[in-house]
Structure formats: structure tokens, C-alpha cells
Amino acid sequence: MCGIAGIINLESEHIPNLNRRLSLMNELQSHRGPDGEGVWQHPSQHIGFAHRRLSIIDLNTGSQPMSDRAGNWITYNGEIYNYLELRQELGIKNFITNSDTEVILHAYRKWGNDCVNHLRGMFAFAIWDESNQVLFCARDRFGIKPLYYTVVDKVLYFASEAKALLPFLKNIEIDVEGFKDYLTFQFCLAGKTLFKSINEVLPGHTLRVSNGIVNVQRYWEVYYNIDFDHTAKYFEEKIASLLSESVELHLRSDVPVGAYVSGGLDSSIVASLSQKKTNDKFIGFTGKFSLSEHYDESKYARALAAQSGFELHELDITATDFIENIHKVIYHLDYPVAGPGSFPQYMVSKMASNHRKVVLGGQGADEIFGGYTRYLVAYFEQCIKGAIDGTMNSGKFIVTYESIIPNLTALKNYKPMLKQFWQEGLFESLDRRYYRLVDRAPSLGDEINWEALRGYNPFETFQEIFLAENVGQQCYFDSMTHFDFKTLLPALLQIEDRVSMAHGLESRVPFLDHPLIELAATIPANIKFTNGTMKRVLKDSMSFCLPSVISNRQDKMGFPVPLVQWMKDDIKDFIFDIFSSQQALNRDFVDNKKVLKGLENEWEFGRKIWGLLCLELWQKEFFGKIQKFVDI
User: Which residues contact 221 (CB under 8 A, 6 or more apart)?
Assistant: First the structure.
């Protein structure tokens, strides 16, 4: 894993102080590559690349930026798991290095822009094509590896992290639409970030610069072409086969590999399969909050370790850890995104980095197999509606109210959410009902200056994704999971990347292998979600490698943080000081005086205070601290 960056003048003009600009970008991403750095500048000084290197192995992998000796250059971050097979397919015998970096260069020479469709892995890279005078950038299908860009005065800057672009902006400002997205979903939509003028290259997209024109284009999409011709047993066998193959590819490493083990289904499957396939001493890593059993799932992680026979390292995370590290978490994230899980994941990654350079995780399964409790909430409402309307047997329902009732115990801790969800809009259209389920804005009141945020409606962008043509409108379940796959998953992957790279740790996610994703999209919802059982087909497929206490669980927590509990005592003063500083009391969009008055009203697993806290810490961390680049 590495950090990449680059600069190109869109009019092919000389860029003043190009080396210094590139070096500054490298410096701001130094944590991503503590083992070395490199810079390449075109003789004309109109384009240059930068690279920070994290050394996983000591083999001849070559330095970056790298050339193919034909004038083409690459800066690359990621892992191409099928690079050995591609070397054979390319038929080139005179490879200079043993690296996947060189394979990408040769793949581009042979297939051009289509090279991305031959790659199986996680990646973000930029190639300068000298003969065609083209800059070609690409990001992997799912957004595992990050890629941001901005254009300032006809110069395009790109980097692995948004912070490396900040010195070149004329002003660091909040993107109002991105801000409103965050208040609604706790992540941004459609490539926006919280920084005005900084965008991300979306997952499955390329960015191409030719003749001064910047063109961003999608190269991969997931299509929900449902396969009604096969049985559940067929899909279970296919899942087991493809996931086993993916784990085996993700274990390709010249150093021992470990795994995050949360105690949930997904990470347990990955860890169990990995232990069976590796001859190295396999290690698992888990975190817990000993404050209460409501925040401690370590007994499930221990059960898996005992059955699978691997060593488990446990970390007891405290309020002191929160005070000492939360500002570091926000800095490494670039801007706040998703829920409080980023904090404990940061701590567990720090522990893991002391023992391993590569870890595997279970990210992605919830979005492709249906693992979020809100799917059950959504179908519960539709079952009630169908029963009232007498349409339960119309063929539109994948579960019945009779079959869903035994699984409603999973909603035990979600009563506050249910209360809010059913306050208004009951039985409205499916898109509006799911929007209400994921919309966090209703919990916010006069703490937000809504008048300053008028004009943009996140629901319109939500609809474009939820009602996308690649899904079809026949199945509510597919529309819900597709929205989360396109939006929430990249946000969680942003966390996965940043908290691991903050500690020089490479994180790999075997569920996000495109043959497996493409299969999952064809599985009928009534097989994935039989009787309202979340991830039913995945459980049935992989139960052979799991303890029953994990495969039969209905109470997965999702790494909740006892923030509300801590605010009553341990971190009360810390939180008060953050919201009551002179800077905090003069924000444009948030009235922190009113936030302070409402601190004691948060419900135990609520995310209102978390979201507002992250916004304030983000503004303190980035606004005024990053020095503007000044030409000498």
C-alpha cells in the first residue's frame, strides 16, 4: 500500500516549482508510505508524479514512479491479485521487476483504457502516456483505494488523500451540498466531499486528460439480472467456491497475514477460511469496550479463535483512548464519514500494525447479501401494508408477515429508530420510505442553520441511485442494498483505508472480488433474505466454518462506541471544551451553543452528537492549519 499524487497543467504549460509541489504532496501523505518516496517530472515540467511507499516485501518490486522504458510512467497504490496470471497472459518475458506495478504498465500498453477490466484487486493509479500525451487515472470497482482531484487555475491535482490537495486551493471552504449530504446520511453522494472544489473519482470510474479536457467515465457496473433458474443450494455452492478462491488470492503475500475479527459473521468467515489456507501462524485482532456487554463482542471472536485454532489479540478500548486519539482519527479520515466505528477500528489497526503488515477484513458482505437491520424494518412495514391491502400473495413480497415475526427480535435495540421512522410517511412510496430510514437529518433541529443550506435536496440525488436502471424496480430489497453498495460501502472503505494506512498497515477485503459481487447481484432476494433472515444465503453457505454461536446470531452490534455513556462522566469536560471554544461558537452552519444544551438528550446508540462532534473536530483540524502553497 502506498500514497500517490500528481499534477498536470491542462494547457501543457510549465508548472513553476513542480518538484516542490510534488514533495509537499508526498509529505502530507507520508504516513501512507513510511518506507520511501519518489518523484518523477516530465522534461517539459507540465506534469509530474509523486509516490510514498509502504514496503510489504523485500523482493525486487522496483521503485515508483515507474517507467516502462517507452516514455510511459505510473504511480500506483493497491494490490492486483491476479498479476501472476496477467504476466502469463501478456506473454512478456523481460519483466524488470516482480511487481504488479509493472504488470499494469504493460497491460495499459496492450489494452489501453480497457486494461482496468483485466485487473482483479484494489487499486488507484495514474499513467502518463507519452506517445498519446494522455493522463489516464483509474480507481477500482468498489472504491477500496481512494483517489481525489481538484482543478485550480487550469492545473489538475490528484492524490490518495484530500489533505494533499488542500495547499493548492485558493481557499479552504465547506462544500454546501456535501455538507447537507453529510447531515442526511453521514457521507457525501455523487463524488462530492466536504471540501469545496475537491471531488473523488467514483468507484469503477476512470479519469482521462487529453488536449486539456478532463473526462470522467464509468468502466464497471453491477447489474441485478436476477437468476430464477437455480436453487438456493446452487447459489450456496457458488458462494462458497468464489469466496474460497477470493480469500486464497487475497492471501498472496510474502509476509504473514492476520485478520480483523469482530465476532460477526463476515469477519469470522474470512478469518476461518484464511486460517485453513495459510501455513503461517495466523493471528486475529479484536477490540472491545469492557464498560458493558452491550459494547463487548469479544466472546464471539474468542469462540471463533478457539474453533479455528488461531491466536487472538484483544484490545480493551477506553475513554482515555478516545480523548487521546479522536482528533487523529478525523485527521486521517480527511473529513468525517459514517459512524463511530472508525474510532475503535483505528485503535485495533494500531494494535495489529505491531504484529502484521497485512490484515484481511469482512467489509462488503452486508451490502451485497443484506446484513443491515433496517432492511428488516423496511420489510416489516411492507408486510403490514400488504396484510391490510390484502396483497400479500401478489408475488411482490419476498417475505410474509407470518414468516418475518420470529426474526423481529433483531429489532430489540432499535425501538427509538422505529418510533422516529413511523412518526410520518407511513406506507408512502418505497423510495421515500427507505430515504426516511437512512435520513439522519430529522434528529437535527435548530442546531443547524438550515436557511444557509437551502436550494439542494439530497433526496433527488438519492433517487437517482435508488431507482437506477441497473437494478430494476421489481424488488425493494435489491434497491435498498444497491443504494448502500453505491454509497455507504465506499464511505466504510474510506475508513478501512485511512485507519489502516495511518499505521502503515495494508487492509484487504476478500468479499469485494468482482466475480463474487456479480454473482450476488443475480441471486433472488427471497433466497438472500429468506423469511426476513439477514444474509441467510451467506450463512447457509458458510456455516461449516463457523461456531453455531456466530452463525445463529441475531444481535450483531456493528462495533458501537459508548460515547453517550462516556459523556456522562469520563469525557464530559472534553466534549464540552470542544463545542464551547471560541471557534466552535462562531461556525456558519452549526450553532454549537444549542448543541451544548442538547448533549444530555442523546439516546444510547444515537449518532447525532457523534456527527456534530466529528464536524467540529474536522473544522478545527483543517481550517486554518493547512498552509497554502506559495510560489517562491
Answer: 204, 470
Bridge partners for 137 per DSSP:
126, 207
How far apart CA 493 and CA 566 sit, in angstroms, is: 27
pLDDT digits (tens, 9 = 90+) for 88-146: 999 877 778 888 999 999 999 999 999 999 999 999 999 999 999 999 999 999 999 99
Q: Please, what is the angle between helix 373-389 and helix 430-438, to 10°?
A: 150
- Is the Cβ–Cβ distance between 252 and 275 less than 8 Å? no
Q: Do the beta carbons of residue 457 and residue 210 sit within 8 Å?
A: no
Reported pTM: 0.94
Residue 478: CA atoms inside 13 Å, Cβ hemisphere, count?
26
Residue in the structure block whose three cell numbers are 497475514 = 257
Strand ranges across the sheet with 257-260: 311-316, 283-288, 257-260, 358-360, 506-508
Residues 6 or more apart in contact with residue 419 via CB below 8 angstroms = none
> How far apart are alpha carbons 468 and 561 in whole angstroms?
34
198 vs 293, higher pLDDT:
198
- Residues near 550 by Cβ (< 8 Å), separated by ≥ 6? 263, 264, 265, 268, 300, 303, 304
- Cα(558)–Cα(544) distance, integer angstroms: 23
pLDDT for the residue numbered 58: 47
Q: Phi and psi dihedrals of 522, rounded to 5? A: -95, -10
- Selecting among 2, 383, 475, 545, the annotated active-site residue is 2
Mapping DSSP onto H, E and C, the string for 284-323 reads: EEEEECCCCHHHCCHHHHHHHHHHHCCEEEEEECCHHHHH
Q: Which residue has the higher pLDDT, 397 or 314?
A: 314
Annotation marks residue 383 as catalytic: no
Buried b vs exposed e over 593-620: b needs ≥16 C-beta within 10 Å?
eebbebbeebeebbbbbbbbbbbbbbbb
What is the tens place of the pLDDT at every residue in 454-473? 889 999 999 999 999 999 76
CA distance linking residue 137 with residue 219, whole number of Å: 12
Which cell numbers in the block locate residue 63? 521503485
Residue 421 is which amino acid? F
User: 390 Cβ partners below 8 Å, 6+ apart?
Assistant: none
DSSP 453-485: GTT--HHHHHHHHHT-TTT-SS-HHHHHHHHHH
CA distance 292 to 98: 49
Backbone phi, then psi, for 219, in 5-degree steps? -115, -10
At residue 287, φ and ψ (nearest 5 deg) are -125, 160
pLDDT computed for residue 61 by the predictor: 54
Contact partners, residue 619, CB within 8 Å, separation at least 6: 583, 587
Which amino acid does the sequence have at 357? K
Can you tell me the distance from the alpha carbon of 408 to that of 261, in angstroms, rounded to the nearest whole number?
Answer: 26
pLDDT in tens, 250-269: 999 888 999 999 999 999 99
176, pLDDT greater than 70 = yes
227: left (phi > 0), else alpha (psi -120 to 50), else beta? beta
What 3-state class would DSSP assign to 370? coil
Q: Which residue has the cell 502469463?
A: 88
DSSP state of 92: -
Contact indicator for 15, 46 with CB cutoff of 8 Å? yes
